[in-house]
Specification:
Number of helices: 5
Number of domains: 1
Distance between the termini: 14 Å
Low-confidence stretches: none
Shape: globular
CATH class: Alpha Beta
Length: 152
């Protein structure tokens, strides 16, 4: 059985965060984990692109009904018609979450992760007690791996 890791962040992001998300996706794929996201653009697209570059598997849980709103680097897209309520599905379908930058949608996913007791690591994301902040994609994946090993 595979391990699902969510990458969350804004649908619009700077070049800096696009690179960080892409690197994160590559590293997730190298671990053999499935990358789950909201299926959109920005951080989500970058993470999926990085995962695909390393042969990884990607799943997008879309806010609308239209699969055309998905980024081009998804293996599976799941249109929900739920809008931002789909954020809870992104969290619940993952064993751990990596937050990169982000706005209020990311904040809601962080809150859902806390509520679900899921480990969550952040890179330049919301400064919230309990969110483990790191400085790089490498550190985020290393910390995520640590949390997953402790759960066994």
């Amino acid at each position: 059985m595979g391990i699902n890791i969510a990458v969350i962040g804004g649908s619009v992001c700077s070049k800096k965060f696009y690179k960080i998300a892409r690197d994160t996706g590559r590293l997730i794929a190298q671990q053999g984990w499935t990358l789950v996201c909201g299926g959109g653009f920005g951080v989500m697209e970058a993470a999926c692109k990085g995962a695909k570059e390393k042969g990884g598997f990607t799943v997008g849980i879309l806010p609308g009904y239209d699969c055309r709103e998905a980024n081009d680097f998804l293996d599976v897209n799941i249109p929900t018609g739920l809008g931002c309520a789909r954020n809870v599905l992104v969290v619940r379908s993952s064993e751990a979450i990596i937050a990169i930058d982000g706005q209020y949608g990311t904040l809601s996913e962080i809150a859902f992760a806390f509520n679900e007791g899921k480990p969550i690591v952040g890179i330049d994301s919301w400064q919230i007690k309990g969110l483990i902040m790191v400085d790089s994609a490498e550190e985020a994946v290393k910390k995520t791996k640590y949390f997953l090993e402790r759960k066994k």
